[in-house]
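One-letter codes give the sequence; backbone shape is given numerically. An example follows:

. . .
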Amino acid sequence: MIVIKVENLSKQYRLGVVSSKTLAADVNRFLAKVRGKEDPMMTVGVENRLNTVDGDYIWALKDINFEVNEGEVLGIVGKNGAGKSTILKILSKVTAPTTGSVKIKGRIASLLEVGTGFHPELTGKENIFLNGAILGMTKAEIRRKFDEIVEFSGVGKYIDTPVKRYSSGMYVRLAFAVAAHLEPEILIVDEVLAVGDAEFQKKVLGKMKDVSKQGRTVLFVSHNMVAVKSLCTKGILLENGMIKEQDLIGPIIDSYLNQFAGKGIINNEWTKSNAPGTDIIKVKSAYVEFKGSHITVNTPFNIITEFWCEEEGFPVNVSMVLWDKNQNCVFNISTENIELEKGLHKATFNIPEQLMNDGYYYVQNYFVTNSTPHFIHNEANAFEIIDDRDNTDWYGKWIGAVRPNFVKTELL
């Protein structure tokens, strides 16, 4: 049975403007929508401005069509700005579509943003009743499930503390606990796994799986492909506000990751006339070499720099320093010291599989002679490593710059 049907859904925003300039204009726009006519405030040709910012309007979504059956767990994936959260807000009736229609059968519980529906001055207990009422729960229903909500959230010790003193993790734990215990026919979740520890994430994934097993429907938005793959059965890939692909979740995740093919890699190349360096050392290129469409935690790869040596017999070793996006040094490795011939040379650093953590990394190269840096090439290149774990109970970001998989570990 179809519980969500979206037809020709589009959402348009006017840049920098909350509403029309006058009350009369707002009324005219509303009446046009009720009568099924075109928005009278839209400028001519605006339909061609999908995801552009050169006019007064932008289309966040354009011509979205999909159906969700009862009991399905649908993953909606795409890059930032693809329109994922906008779809969820329309389905949750937080905002209205510009054109198109949404038909929903059943009660919806939504967890779209941390602390939505919470009042910072109220205690956790008071916010359970407030948020539950906003989500459609009766006072009697909230009272009946209050202890279960508090236990699930894990914030019982602070339940009488104003939530303005809660951490973001405590906020989302309490918010999800309320939404999950509404027992909705449809549960909508946006990036709930971005906050929280391992125990809470296991609870969240377990609760969403329980919801689906009970014949209820889940819509899940996340950048965590490990969690999406574990939880969802079908998927939608959004790109620039439009549906690029609808399929089973496996092919959808593959298509999503293929969007990053080469785009997380900065391959820099220079000529001698504009090459960074000195009169003796001039960098020709700095790049990452690997097989496949993207680097994962299970992908071996090479970090390479090519350079010209302009002086015969110049003694050099190349030291490669790897930094993460938080400017933490991951490691520093070096070539042997060699008296170079005049000409083009290449330094290659081999990074094995199952060593690096997922994330974004920057490369810094030191050209060292006689134990003294001759030239430091800052941010020579950069690359991204993607997580491709499977069959795991942990869906969050692994702690640490590296995550080696040793051949043998024992617990005695």
Notes: The domain at 2-258 is CATH 3.40.50.300 (Rossmann fold). DSSP finds eight helices and 19 strands in the chain.
